[in-house]
Amino acid sequence: MRKGMSAMINLAEELKGVRTVAIAGHVRPDGDAIGSCLGLYHYLKKNYPEIEAKVYLEQIPDAYRIIAGVDEVICQTGAETEADLFFCLDCADEKRLGDFAVLCKKARRTVCIDHHISNGGFADENYIVPDASSTSELVFGVLEEEKIPYESAEALYMGIVHDTGVFRHSCTSPETMEIAARLMKKGIDGSKIINRTYYDKTYHQNQILGRALLESILLMDKKIIFSAIRQKEMDFYGVTPSDLDGIVQILMSTSGTEVAIFLYETEPQTFKVSLRSREIVDVSVVAAYFGGGGHVRAAGCTMQGSIYDVVNNITLHIEEQLRQENSCD
Ligand code: AMP
Ligand code: MN
Ligand code: MN
Hints:
Helix 2 (about 30-45) links the parallel strand 1 (about 20-25) and strand 2.
């Protein structure tokens, strides 16, 4: 059993007598939130046609349009919120469901499948494995492999690809590679999924990336790389927050750095903060201190103040962790 593993979900048991299922993931859904939700959705549609299943996610970026079922995703909650069973996927707490938290509150039973270290287990049934590469990997584990349809395989593979940075981050385990291989055996086009949903960028996305790189600065003896995008710059390039996905990862590829900090302005004096680390700093602790969360090597939060306030506050916490590490040497 893997470290931090909570009880595995028995999906067939959970679905006994269930007529309606709602599935949702975190706000500003990423590849894993989308992949895990659609992976489960297609599986239910194929194997449990008597169940009415619906997926709820905030607006999905265009790059994900090649994944089957994206058009069926419901972007706003309506009147029908009382599902027999609610699946909360890739979401560390109820607040991160945004408007869809109502589904969790009103459902007869709730099941959470997640890999965020900051997840305290808020559902009736919680399957949380911080060591897992992705929620998509965990969803694969609760499905019967021979019953996984092609559409689920595509979605789950995509989720794993995104959260592992294409099998590159340290969360990529031998199990991750095995699961990816088993999904590939369903006949999916892995290369197309990787290129179209992960690497391909629009001209404007690349322009804003260029701007973020050009204006990045090194702090703390070059251990930290930092960059920020203001609202007026986003307006100038005609981009929205989802167009900035991936910038923090590229900042992190600057050799010699331990932490990458990327901010973008959501409202005046309010910034969405993305943190990445290489080997030493636990950024989930830093993000949690400021009311956010995530993983040891990738975390996020929202902070108020000027860019300088935000950076100063975060770097103090990073400095503290690096100092403790040095004193242990
Ligand atoms: P981001 O930099 O926003 O892509 O986030 C990196 C990782 O941290 C992702 O796995 C997010 O789901 C997670 N994360 C970001 N913001 C929060 C938050 N406020 N609370 C919990 N987890 C978060
Ligand atoms: Mn996610
Ligand atoms: Mn995830």
